[in-house]
Amino acid sequence: ELIQGDGLLLLPAFVDLHAHLREPGQEYKEDIASGLAAAAAGGFAHVCAMPNTRPVNDTRSITEAMIARARAIGGPALHPIGAITMGQKGTELTEMADLKDAGAVGVSDDGRCVTSSSVMRRALEYAKTFDLTIIQHAEDHALTDGAQMHEGAISTRLGLRGWPRVAEDIIVARDVLLAEATGARYHVAHISSLGAVRILREAKARGIAVTAEVTPHHLTLTDAAVLGYDTACKVNPPLREQADVDALREALADGTIDAVATDHAPHSTLEKDCEFAEASPGLIGLELVVPVLLDLVRQGALPLGRLVDALTRAPARIARLEAPTIKAGARAELCLVDPNLSFVLDPARLRSKSKNTPFLGRQLTGRVKMTLASGRVVFVDGEGAAT
Ligand code: DOR
Ligand code: ZN
Ligand code: ZN
After folding, report:
1. Which residue out of 16, 263, 309, 338 is catalytically annotated?
2. Which residues have their alpha-adjacent CB atom under 5 A from ion ligand 3?
3. Which is the most buried residue in 43, 67, 249, 277, by most CB within 10 A?
4. Residues in Cβ contact with 49 at an 8 Å cutoff, skipping those fewer than 6 apart
5. Which stretch of DSSP H or E encloses residue 338?
6. Coil/strand/helix, residue 123
7. Cα-atom radius of gyration of the chain, to the nearest Å?
8. 3-class DSSP state for residue 17?
9. Please, what's the largest Cα pairwise distance for the chain?
10. What is d(CA 279, CA 105) in angstroms, rounded to the nearest whole number?
11. CA neighbor of 261 nearest in space, from 223, 332, 226, 211
12. How far is 37 from 379, CA to CA, in rounded Å?
């Protein structure tokens, strides 16, 4: 299906539903300028930014400041996701109407799952009144305390505490029931387990307003990548097993999983160059979507059209954004991709401030050559192999 030879692909520019740009508060990992530069290099025209900044994005003023900063930079558009609750460990709901009015495209408490059924029900009821999506990092913390990786044969072999699939499944199942009871829109962030995929499939068949995203790393890597204690592969939710990867691929291909999102989670070298148990979870992804996922297309696991939909129309629909399209007279939001360009991933080429990815040094095929966002060229790939 991919063009053979030297042909470039013209695609609508991508929309990322899930990135951590770390500004305000942790600019040593990433800031809005470097994060948006990475996004442009990855083919994105729109980036939705998770609220686990310092301070947490739980107010109109932080949301507005993030948007103003991005507009001053002039690259891809930034769309903040507000917090569901106030502060780091709050149970009081945020003023979601204000957040939406300020430009937030959803609310989440990423990395700190809303485990209280009561808070979740109130959040869904409240968000429903403004057609705002609740985005859940599905993790029952009672089952993941101290967990370092997926619970299975490899965690036993490595002597690392495991994060069982059921910790994700329980929250997704409960939230689906709450979404049904409230009629609100509910979105599963970075779905990773085969059980959660089954629950999602059943929920959609029953007409419940639930959507989901999957990351490139959960589609391509398993817990075997953690052998050797590679901290670049430490991530929440963890890399799981081949059966999960197969279920995720099938669900993405048949549309049960709506979107691909990066969960771009930059961390400094010091936060990864340490004992596995001390390492921060997360990996960068904005610049790697094309080479990592075109591989799935080449393997026949995913039609190119479905991949493009999962990176453009589907996330735009969930965030209530206008989807980038290629049509005469539209303001250009597109990317040019060379599907056959092979290269070794060099950290010096990455625009992100952080280099935490297990794909460093790997041979990859497929590269973004140019990105246009909001009618402007925001990225052009440097010529030749040097830097
Ligand atoms: O691996 C992760 N990193 N998972 C999360 O939920 C949070 C994220 C981060 O902010 O670094
Ligand atoms: Zn998360
Ligand atoms: Zn995240």
Report:
1. 263
2. 110, 263
3. 43
4. 19, 20, 21, 32, 35, 57, 66, 78, 79, 80, 81
5. strand 334-344
6. helix
7. 19
8. strand
9. 59
10. 31
11. 211
12. 8
CB 337 within 8 A of CB 41: no
For the chain, 387 residues long, the average pLDDT of each consecutive 10-residue run is 74 98 98 98 98 97 98 98 91 96 97 94 97 97 97 98 98 98 98 98 98 98 98 98 98 98 98 98 98 98 98 98 95 97 97 98 97 98 58
Contacts of 61 (CB under 8 A, 6+ apart): none
Residue nearest to atom 6 of ligand 1 (CA): 111
Q: Which atom of ligand 1 is nearest to the CA of 139?
A: 6
Closest atom of ligand 1 relative to the 52 alpha carbon: 10
Note the ipTM here. Answer: 0.97
Residues with CB under 6 A from ligand 1: 20, 52, 110-111, 137, 235-236, 265, 281-282
pTM above 0.95, yes or no: yes
By DSSP bridging, strand 376-380 and strand 363-373 are: antiparallel
The closest of 236, 264, 328 to 76, measured between CA atoms, is 264
What is the 281 CA–ligand 1 centroid distance (Å)? 6
Whether residue 43 contacts residue 368, with contact meaning beta carbons closer than 8 Å, is answered with yes
Measured in Å, residue 110 CA sits from the centre of ligand 3 at 5
Pairing, β 210-214 against β 259-260 = parallel
Task: Please tell me the residue having the least CA distance from ligand 1 atom 1.
Answer: 282
Cis preceding linkage at 12, omega within 30: no
Whether 230 is a known active-site residue: answer no
